[in-house]
Amino acid sequence: MNNVVIAGVGKYIPSKIVTNNMLSQIVETSDEWIVSRTGIKQRHITTNENTSDIASKAALNAIHDSNIDVCDIDLIIVATCTPDMYTPATACIVQKNIGAKNAFAFDLGAACSGFIYGINVAKSIMVSNDIKKALVIGAETLSKSIDWNDRSTCVLFGDGAGAVVLSLSENEGILDVICKSKGIKWENLTIGAKDLTNPYIDEKIRMNPYLNMNGSEIFKFATVEIVSLIKQILKDNNLSLEDIAYIIPHQANERIIQFAAKKLEIPVDKFYINIDEYGNTSAASIPIAISEMSEKNLLKKGDKLIAVGFGAGLTSGACLIKWQNN
Ligand SMILES: CC(C)(COP(=O)(O)OP(=O)(O)OC[C@H]1O[C@@H](n2cnc3c(N)ncnc32)[C@H](O)[C@@H]1OP(=O)(O)O)[C@@H](O)C(=O)NCCC(=O)NCCS
């Protein structure tokens, strides 16, 4: 079998909601500024959970949705830029939490493009090694890496997790994936390693441990990438935008999505948007969106979908999906 389908989806969102008005009590900002510049109205923040905890809950929901036994999972990939620890991999902690004793597990670091990268890597491993079932999870607790005194970043991000169960299949599912990296631009979005030192350290190599971003550069990168990746994946597969039921973009800024819709000359409602509720949840944003769309019965068997992401690295990627999970 050379195909891989999405056999189940799930998400987990931390219960604590932080509204824009609550943020305006911490930094000089306003609901009006945040909504008009980004589309974000609120975000969910973890208080007593780590990335592995929320990843595990999303994973269990996806496993339940796929009707498989957790022991059937052969591979777990957690896409995250906010792992619990440098080592072990958050994926190994998830393995223990959910009891997937037969899996091998590792993390993948491609920031907000991580879920798309994860699908590509999982599909390749499954097809080449005859691996039947995999979990790809996007999970982030970015709230812990943000400088809550920096109004230009603290208003943008939120916590959450989304997961898919992938299954080797005779049916078409993951039709195509594109992954791209532009390391030359890495300095535009960083979260430095925290407090690592030795007795001989040169202070110059110390990094800012908080999320640091050149917003306008990322904005430009995102608008170019999102449009060119959608065009490229359509062209590579002899499809047009009319063949696509939904585009599921990484949720970083509603204005980036509106710009892409305008450039592609399609109505913005072809894009699934939920940034108002969650903010930017990095690697989790696309699987959260897919899971939410499935819960709302927006997805029909046979629908073709494009998921498209971009983020630190700078990375970007797109995935063409034929929906088989009903
Ligand atoms: C960050 C972003 C929302 C900023 O929007 P913008 O319209 O470009 O705003 P600017 O950075 O030009 O700032 C405009 C003004 O608002 C101010 N401002 C910034 N954050 C603010 C906030 N939360 N509340 C109020 N004012 C704020 C700035 O200080 C600036 O003031 P000044 O003109 O007096 O200097 C936008 O650049 C963006 O979304 N970039 C992409 C980020 C992204 O996607 N990151 C994740 C990648 S996965």
From TrEMBL:
Residues 106-183 form the Beta-ketoacyl-[acyl-carrier-protein] synthase III N-terminal domain. Residues 234-323 form the Beta-ketoacyl-[acyl-carrier-protein] synthase III C-terminal domain. InterPro entries: ACP_syn_III_C, ACP_syn_III_N, FabH, Thiolase-like. SUPFAM superfamilies: Thiolase-like. Residues 251-255 are annotated as: ACP-binding. The active site is at C112, H250, N280. It is an enzyme of class 2 (transferase). The last Arg residue of the ACP-binding site is essential for the weak association between ACP/AcpP and FabH. HAMAP family: FabH (MF_01815). Catalyzes the condensation reaction of fatty acid synthesis by the addition to an acyl acceptor of two carbons from malonyl-ACP. Catalyzes the first condensation reaction which initiates fatty acid synthesis and may therefore play a role in governing the total rate of fatty acid production. Possesses both acetoacetyl-ACP synthase and acetyl transacylase activities. Its substrate specificity determines the biosynthesis of branched-chain and/or straight-chain of fatty acids. Belongs to the thiolase-like superfamily. FabH family. This is Beta-ketoacyl-[acyl-carrier-protein] synthase III. It comes from Intestinibacter bartlettii.
